[in-house]
Amino acid sequence: MEGDISRSPGAVDKTNLSKYKTPSQDQNIDEMDENENEEILKGMMNLMSRRMPYIKLKDQYNVLKRLGSGTYGSVVLAEHKLQGKVMALKLMKKKTTKKENFLMEYCVSLCLSSHPNIIKTLPVAFETDRYFLFAQEQAIGDLHSIIVPQDGLPDIIVKRCAMQLAEALDFMHSKALVHRDVKLDNILIFDQDCHHIKLADFGLTRLEGFHISPLKGTVPYSPPELCTLEETDTLELDSSLDIWAFGILLFCISTGYFPWETAICQDSDYEKFVVWQTTGNYQKIPSEWKQFTWRALDMFQKLLAINAMTRSPAIEVQKYLSDPWKINSLKDNSNLQDN
Ligand SMILES: Nc1ncnc2c1ncn2[C@@H]1O[C@H](COP(=O)(O)OP(=O)(O)OP(=O)(O)O)[C@@H](O)[C@H]1O
Ligand SMILES: [Mg+2]
Which of 57, 77, 270, 303 has the smallest C-beta neighbourhood within 10 Å, fewest atoms? Predict the structure, then answer.
C-alpha cells in the first residue's frame, strides 16, 4: 500500500463516504451535566416548544427543489408564499426524531448563528403531520461536492477553508459546545473557491462534559479515544474531539482521501501513523504524509495528537497559513497573502 495513494481505503468518493453516515443519536439530552449553559438552552427550548406552530407545508410554502439529505432528514429549498422569501428548510421525520432533539438542534443553531462562518438559522420553526422543520439561509453546496477524489483542493483553497473553520470551531468551543460531526458534508459553501464557507448541522452538538457512547460502525473522523471505547463505557465530551475531526478534514481536502479508515491499531494506515508519532523518527513517516512540508506536518501533529489532552485549539492553524503545506505547492509559493 505504501506510496500507492490511489488505493487508499478512504478515498473521497460518494461510494466510500456513504459508509460514513453520522452515527445514530443514542443519547437523551437529559444526560447532560448540570450547568448554566444547559439551563439557558433548556429555557430556550421550552419557549420555542410552546411557540412552535402546526401547519400544512403546502399551504404556506412552495417547495422548489431538494438541496440534500442526511441521516436524520432532508433539506429543501422553499419559498414562503406570502412573503416571497426563499430559504432552506431542514425537515426531520417525526417517526425517527424526538421533539427535544429537534428543539436542541434548532436552539443551538440559533445561538451560534451570529458567527460569519456558521450557517445562519432563521427564526422560523414549525411542525407538520410528519415533520419537524426549521429554516436556514441557502448555500450552493457542501465541501464534499467540490473535492477532487485522490487529488484534493489547491493549497490556497485548503488554507482558506482551514482559517474559516478554525474560527467557527473556536467560537463554538468558547461557548463549551462541541460539534461532534465535523465532516465534509457538514461544511456548506457559498462560492466554488471557498472564499465563504460555513459550519452547519448541529444535530449532534452537545455541551462539554456530556457522556457519549461507543460508535456504531466505522467513522474515519473519530479520534482514537472514541474508536477504542469499550461497549459499556462512556466518554466525557471535550472540544478535542472536534479538533481531531478538523485535522482529518484538512488532510482529506488536501489529498482527496482519508489518512485511514478507523483510528485503531488494527488499521495498518493508522498504525504506521502511531509508530511515526511515538518514535518521532523521520524514516518512519508514512508515505501518505511525505507530500506535506515540515510546517504542515508540525500542524497536523498538533491537531492529531494521539493524547487528546495535548491537542491544540483549532485556532492554532492560523500560525501556519503563510507557509506552503503541500510540497508540490512550493513551486507556486501559494499562501493566503497572495490573494
Ligand atoms: N442551508 C443549506 N443550503 C444548501 N444545502 C444544504 C443546507 N443545509 C444542508 N444542505 C445539504 O443537505 C445535506 C444534509 O443536511 P444536514 O447535514 O443538515 O442533514 P443531516 O441529516 O443532519 O445530515 P448528517 O447525515 O450529517 O447527520 C448537507 O450535507 C448539504 O449538502
Ligand atoms: Mg449533515
Answer: 77
Q: What is the pLDDT of residues 12-48, one digit of tens each?
A: 543 353 335 565 554 444 444 446 888 999 999 999 9
Q: Could you name the CATH architecture of 141-338?
A: Orthogonal Bundle (1.10)
Which residues of the chain form CATH 3.30.200.20?
A: 14-136
Contacts of residue 276, defined as CB under 8 A and 6 or more positions apart, other chains included, come to 284, 285, 286, 289
Ligand nearest to the CA of residue 69, numbered in listed order: 1
Q: Where in the sequence numbering do the catalytic residues fall? A: 181
pTM value is: 0.89
Q: How far apart are CA 284 and CA 280, in angstroms?
A: 8
Is any ligand 1 atom within 6 A of the Cβ of residue 334? no
Ligand 1 closest atom vs CA 181 = 26
Instruction: Kindly report the CATH class assigned to 14-136.
Output: alpha beta
CA–CA gap between residue 77 and residue 137 (Å, rounded): 10
Question: Which parts are annotated binding residues?
Answer: 90
